[in-house]
Amino acid sequence: MKKLSLSALAAMGVLAGMTGANAADLGGNCCADLEERIAELEATTARKGNRKVSLTISGWVSQEVTVWDDGRRTKAYVSDIGNTLNSNVKFTGQAQINSEWSAGYVLQLEGADSQALNLSQKSFNGATGAGEAFTPLQSFWFVKSNQLGKLSVGRQSSAADNAALLPDGSGTLVFANYIMYEINGFNTRNRGVLTGNTWGSYATCPGIQAGVSADCDGVPNNNIRYDTPTFGGFSASASWGESDIWALSGRYSGEVHDYKVSAAIGYTEGTSTTTPTTNPAVLGTTTRVKGSALQIGGYIENVPTGLFVYGAYGHDYNDSVSSWAGKSDGDNYYIKAGIRQKWNPLGHTVLFGEYGKNENKQSIALWESGITSSNLNQWGLGVVQEIDAAAMSMFFVYRNYSADSTCANVNLATCAGVQGVGKSSVDDAQIFKAGALINF
Asked: For 81, which DSSP code?
């Protein structure tokens, strides 16, 4: 006999609850009508490819309204949150081989076009202007042992991807972090005049070039990754992939008396190529850039009071022998503190303040134009309201950005977009953003 579908069983349950008199009233066409309805239900049912591999669909939808003020103009955009944090859908499959081993896969698609990283004074919906476009963010298979750990192969996060970011357990990680998504593509101004340089050019990664701001190893790539099992709250990861990028990381998460504690450290090393456009000595030549990055992050929260502190530090080592030879290493600092309490029945409310700094992280274009040192500072305030019944978070964040640099007498006309040698600064920029994220 064929196995009955769930819809057939449900229909049989309805029939079983009927009285004999009611059944008689259905007439001779009852079974034909029932079979037709079952066929309709089965036609609209999502199916897996097979019964051996489980399938879980998850993800989130996130959108925000961003109001910006660059000192001369003010405008509002609607966009997604930012690359790797955008609206996405994730398909996870897993099959149990035996009591010790399992295997599976992850396929994650992300909305990649209409997002905060692409915002500027000229654009509100991304580089192509085509609206939302979903692209693969991760696609890999894995085998896992309870005792030996997990081996993954494919497009995925490296071992150090977001290592310092992930310990943040305040509930504000996605909406306020050390990555400057919403200001990255905007041009700076000096005395109201556009300089031709973006805010993101003051917060780049000299060697790895696989991320923005303080997140130098922040983009999934094709790699082989190994993750250990968790022992007493401790775990570690290692990966190697394209562009000879290899990474190591270690993590801890646990509770000590009334405190939640989590911390992580990550190290990445890799090479990339770039084509200088300004420096006459290497103009038009493709040069090899080598660098490495260290990142450390930690979080502590007093559970009864809800008071928390999160901090992160990163250092970029410039080991290049190309046009970046001689450029200083870069540093970034970030701290966030606040309170997380359930003051209403909707869920936790989080109030926070933040401060961050990127030091000597100017882009290759700024370095070639004569900027020998730079600073970019950010500070902000925000509130997040969690809505537990809807797996949703609503947020409002205000941020202020400022930057300054020191120019050498190399290319006077373009040095920071300012005529003159010495220390110069750009006009402050302000961002107000409000939105929501809902998980599924």
From this structure: S
Q: Could you give the 3-state DSSP secondary structure of residue 73?
A: coil
Q: Token pair of 416, please? A: 């920071």
Q: What integer pLDDT is reported at residue 322 of this predicted model?
A: 56
What pLDDT does 332 receive? 93
Given a cut of 50, is residue 419 above it in pLDDT?
no
> What phi and psi values does residue 186 have, to the nearest 5 degrees?
-75, 145
Give me the half-sphere count of Cα atoms (radius 13 Å) on the Cβ side of residue 130: 7
Burial string for 273-309 (b: 16+ CB within 10 Å, else e) reads ebebebbeebeeeebebbbbbbbbbbbbbeeeebebe
Confidence of residue 60 (pLDDT cuts 50, 70, 90): very high
Q: What is the DSSP letter of 212?
A: B
Which residue segments constitute the domains of the chain, with CATH numbers given? Answer: 1-45 (no CATH), 53-439 (2.40.160.10)
User: Which secondary-structure segment (H or E) carries 358?
Assistant: strand 347-359
| Alpha-carbon span 218 to 166, nearest angstrom | 12
- 75-81 average pLDDT score: 92
Contact 254, 234 (CB under 8 A): no
Q: Residue 32: which residues within 8 A CB-CB, separation 6 or more?
A: none
| Report field, pTM of the whole predicted structure over 0.90 | no
Residue 78 in this model has a pLDDT that exceeds 80:
yes
d(CA 410, CA 422) in angstroms, rounded, equals: 11
**β 193-198/149-156 pair status:** unpaired
- Per the document, the length of the chain is 440
Residue 183: DSSP 8-state: G
Residue type, 420: G
Separation of alpha carbons 223 and 242, rounded Å: 6
- In order of 86, 91, 109, 181, the CA distances from 133 in angstroms are 11, 18, 10, 18
Distance set, CA 288 to CA 94, 205, 208 (Å): 41, 14, 11
Separation of alpha carbons 404 and 314, rounded Å: 20
CA 275 to each of CA 41, 250, 272, 286, 289: distance values in angstroms, whole numbers, following the listed order: 59, 35, 11, 4, 10
139 neighbors 123 (Cβ within 8 angstroms): no
CA angle 23, 28, 33 (to 5 degrees): 85
Contact assessment for residue 161 and residue 220, using Cβ atoms and an 8 Å cutoff = yes
Q: DSSP class of residue 210?
A: B
